[in-house]
Write a structure and sequence with these properties.
- By secondary structure, the protein is mainly alpha-helical.
- The chain has five helices and two strands; from the N terminus they run ααααββα.
- The protein has two domains: 83 residues; 38 residues, no CATH class.
- It is 65% helix and 2% strand.
- Strand 1 and strand 2 form a beta hairpin.
- It is flat and about 75 Å long.
Length: 171
Amino acid sequence: MENSDNDEDVNRSWENIKDNIQTSAQESLGLDEFKQNKPWFDEECLGFLDQRKQAKIQWIQDPSQSNVDTLNKVRREVSRHFRNKKEAYLRAKIEKLETNNKIQNIRDLYRGIIDFMKGYQPRCNIVKDEKGDLVADSHGIVARWRNYEGRTESHEQPFFACKLGTADEGE
């Protein structure tokens, strides 16, 4: 009896600590907006994700053969749905490019082609300060750029923290 009360006190204490950490982090850092990288991903896709998650939880709780079969079936359905959604989105994008070509809207045609060909472009949002420490916040990066541009010394080392590719590397 005393052991269960102690467990509840520990759990309650942990929940309080966790809530305090989350609240202070939210107040100091703020919440980031959810950035949608896949325009074809909608509420229906979220429903499919929830369905897959529930099937996985059910399988974890009871790893019977019927739950394994159910999980595999749900995974196939979700993958098929995502594949069809993405395919429809790409088909609509290609049709838009074709209509831009037919009506001689060259600017939108080339913008669409460049967007299509570009694909994923990783961004380097971290720079090094004068001491060599990493700076990740946007205000610090802007200040570092201003400081860097203000210098007239040409012997200063590049200060990017991530590797930047050049055209000469392929040769």
